[in-house]
Amino acid sequence: MHAGPRARYNCRPPPPVRPRRLPLLLPARNPPVFAACFAVRLPSFRSLIAVVLLVAAAPPARAVELEGICRYGGAAASALAASDEGDVLTRKYAPDRAVDVVHIKLDVTPDFRARTVAGTAKLVFAPIAEPLRSLTLDAADLEVAAVRGSQEVRDFAVDREHVTIVFAEPVAVGAEAWVEIDYSAEPHKGLYFRTREMGFREEDEHVWSQGEPHEARHWYPAFDSPNEKSSTEVILHVPAAMTALSNGRLIDETPEGNGLKAVHWLQEKPHANYLLCVVVGHLAKLEKQLGDLPLAFFTQPSLAEHAANSFADTADIIDFYQQETGVRYPWDKYYQTTIGDFMWGGMENTSLTTLTQETLFSDATENIYDSRGLDAHETAHQWFGNYVTCKDWSHLWLNEGFATYYTHLYEGHKLGRDAMLYGLYTDARDRVLSNGEDRRPIVYRQYRRPFEQFDFRAYPKGSWVLHMLRSQLGPELYRQAVHTYLGRNAWGVVESEDLREAFEDVSGRTLDRFFDQWVYHAGHPKLTVKFKWLAEDNLAHVHLQQEKSTDAAAHWFEFPVTLRFVVDGQTIDERVDVDDQEHDFYVKLPGEPQIVRFDPEYSVLAEVDFDKSDALLRAQLKDESDVIGRVLACEALGKRKNGKSIAALKDALNSDPFFGVRMEAADALYAIRTDEAFDALLQSREQQDARVRHKVLEVIGRHYRPEARSAMLDAAAHDSNPAVVASAIRALGKHNGPDTHAAIRQALASKSFGNEPVGAAFQAIERLRDPALQGDVIETLTTRRDELQLEELELGLRALAKISTDDEHRDAAFELLASFLNHPRKPLVRRAVQALGELGDERARALLEPLAIDPEGDRVAEAAAAALEKLDETVPVAPSEVAELRKALRKLTKEQQELAEQVDELKGKDDAAEDDDDESESAAE
Asked: How far, CA to CA in Å, does 661 sit from each of 408, 673, 695, 702?
């Protein structure tokens, strides 16, 4: 890859070629899947639609008449399912690189009122192995007006997914060339406007881009795959009062005299296309400096009051990562900016991270919330994902696993080793080991869509693979290996084998088995451990049994692990190797141990069932040197319904030095579910650490007891922390009554940053299912629509549907929910669609059907299809056979749309190929 732009960018271009429009071709009206069935009676797809509409509107027909139609629908659905299954078996690899993309330059103008973008994209490239006759770029639904280039452009073709450019003469191998494309777009992905017409405050208007995994193609043409890297350049023509941000360093900001200004950014070092980013809008700015590295944090002005909280750790995080990796921060700056209605937590665009607005928090929540984890994760990507990038999405863990693990390492750096280990524990327990269907390996190619890879395998399980490597090699050797990995692959793309080779070369160890079982195979060890003291011989006997799953690809895991024994204050560690289904380990000790631990260093990702005596567990709970041991002791004692266990857990809840153990003790007391355990919780409500106070209240709120209700009402009325108040209000959803309604109404009217108590009130109302609160919900959604955050509004819409299913209240709910279908914020439309499905009102069908066949196939369309299916199940208007037919028809309609897109794309490629053939024939003549 080349690091920067070339002087020949300013070459005088030849005259532009005007576009040749391709006709929109539709597939045969009878897709083969049901053509054979309908060939005689229903000769066209339109006929099927007509029959379905007539049947839906007609009185119930005789069963024999419906049976014939339903069989065809079932056959179609089965064929489509088989087709989907075939898709899953298709392995996904990085696309071929016919050219090396040297540089991308965008010169664009976003239109905030029309929510469109227009401008010119310039790509500099060089053919790699063969002379290039045509160049195909990813370009989804772009309107291309003209194409020109350094080589004469003979023609170009545009379809829904690509633009194909045909050159008059082939471009020679290694010869640098360029094309410029004038285009416009009204993107439904990739570039997202947040304007006053969409319910945002005028002073908060902004637009932002999102590239990962393949969204960039929706607002500019490019090679939209992670295995291609280039330098980039962006010129934005924006309103003079707005801030315009992009990757790299600011070159110039020039007034244009028409109320606009041109803002010019240059990213000289190569990065992947999905990391190109723009953010434009009214933004408040905070600034810092880390040596010669400029840092900044941008927020919408109405949120600026609390921005400093989320920016507090950034400089320290970068400094720690530089020390930990041995690689200086590799980019020109590090800016972060919040954006509205972001679908993810954050996105690590090169030198310009975008963050959800929900990462902001107020001081009123004390230490319950922080942005440190999100900040650390996205910042780690500047090394792992941006500096070194996974070649394709099957190796995504090289991006996300590193970012997740280095977040834990930073927690350990800032708060101590206990915090790091507790984070790894909650990741393992809640996100990895709880996935019983862990049947896909981390490196997996048989996915339908890239987003399937963005799951627990890439994030916490990938993080755990790195933790196990670090545990086996030691921190210093691990650092050297990571430094080597980054250095060898700087500015490039990587596969998992690149990481293995770096670690092998530095450590001298053969890691084939390690990578084979943890990276290239699915699952994790499931172990049963038993301890027995053999007093006559002073031997500790540890029996270990490994469970093998029924998966045909299952295998025994092999790993080293430590057995620890504490005898009268003396710690004795024994390192053993697990390499079979069953082991018996015998360790000579000076006396009977008071503590016995399996894997005390917490170095193996495994489900471990280790049944111990109460005495061993209580001693383990007292060992302040072993945070994971104390956490596991809490979990185990929560299964022992006796007074000594309750006393030990209550003591831990109120005195353990680590907040995580205190929270685990609260959960364990709830698990016991006796009067004594409940009393221990009630007596432990006063906690200085807000996280523990919040947890204790939440655990008390799980109980259906009068004392629990009183505790919730008290906290709702008197606690000053809005997060704690929200937890109390949420729990009141179990307790109907006038005082509960009063507390809920007070929460609906409350005002705090983020308005979490309002959302909690909606959740309580949904759980109560009391229509008497419908008026309060409607009033809040109506009067506070522009004030509440997206999450609170979504909770309100869902609650409204849940409490309004009876005839008396359905009309008012239907009217309000239907009004949200025209809202310009897609997430609210989606939630309103889902709520209409829950409401069970047949009138919703006419509103949902047009949304369900949206050719864009976005999340609103998916929600509408699901809502229609729910209506089919809950509204007894049509026979069940018709409901099944409707489902089949929707699937067939979607299939036809997909076929149309494929044919359109193939037509474009075919025309481009014909141009190449014509050119070859002319040359031969």
From this structure: 17, 19, 11, 19
CA dihedral 294, 300, 304, 306 (to 10 degrees): -100
Sheet hosting strand 99-111, strand order edge to edge = 143-149, 177-185, 116-127, 99-111, 229-239, 260-272, 249-255
How far out from the chain centre does Cα 504 lie? Answer: 32
Residue linked to tokens 């919408």: 300
Distance of CA 596 to the CA centre of its chain: 39
**How far is 275 from 409, CA to CA, in rounded Å?**
25
CB 20 within 8 A of CB 156: yes
Q: Are 427 and 460 in contact (CB under 8 A)?
A: yes
Local mean pLDDT, 10-residue blocks, the chain (925 residues): 30 36 31 30 32 31 27 30 46 97 99 98 99 98 98 97 98 98 97 93 97 98 98 99 99 96 99 99 98 98 96 98 99 98 96 98 97 99 99 99 99 99 98 85 95 96 99 98 99 99 99 98 96 98 87 80 98 97 98 99 98 98 99 98 98 99 99 98 97 98 98 98 98 97 98 97 98 98 92 97 96 97 89 96 94 71 92 68 56 62 56 48 39
Q: What is the pLDDT of residue 84?
A: 36
Helix (H, G, I), strand (E, B) or coil at 446: coil
> Which among 97, 108, 171 is positioned nearest to 142, based on CA atoms?
108
Cα 443 from chain centre: 18
Domains of the chain: 1-17+96-280 (2.60.40.1730), 32-90+877-906 (no CATH), 283-384 (1.10.390.10), 388-518 (1.10.390.10), 714-876 (1.25.10.10)
Would you tell me the crossing angle of helices 45-57 and 880-924 to the nearest 10 degrees? 160
CB atoms within 10 A of CB 258: 8
Residue located via tokens 């109506």: 782
Residue 243 CB contacts under 8 Å (≥ 6 apart), including other chains: 279, 280, 281, 282, 283, 285, 298
Residues 401, 496: contact at Cβ < 8 Å?
no
**550 phi, psi to nearest 5 deg:** -80, -5
The one-character DSSP state at 26 is P
**Residue 671 phi, psi dihedral angles, 5° rounding:** -65, -30
User: Which residues lie below 8 Å from residue 563, measured CB to CB, with a gap of 6+?
Assistant: 540, 542, 573, 574, 575, 576, 585, 587, 596, 597, 598
First to last CA, the chain: 39
Backbone angles phi, psi at 240, to 5 degrees: -60, -30
Q: What was the pLDDT predicted at 904? A: 57
Write the Ramachandran bin of 617: left for phi over 0, alpha for psi from -120 to 50, otherwise beta: alpha
530 forms bridges with which residues in the sheet? 543
Q: Which helix (H) or strand (E) element contains residue 166?
A: strand 162-171
402 within 8 A of 466, measured Cβ to Cβ? yes
Distance, CA of 913 to CA of 240 (rounded, Å): 46
Place of tokens 């839906």: 56
CA distance 369 to 378: 17
At 367, is the secondary structure helix, strand, or coil? coil
Angle between helical axes of 826-839 and 790-802 (0-180°, round to 10): 10
What strand order describes the sheet that includes 582-588? 582-588, 539-546, 526-534, 607-610
Q: What is the bridge-based pairing of β-strands 526-534 and 162-171?
A: unpaired
Q: Is the peptide bond before 600 cis (omega within 30 degrees of 0)?
A: no
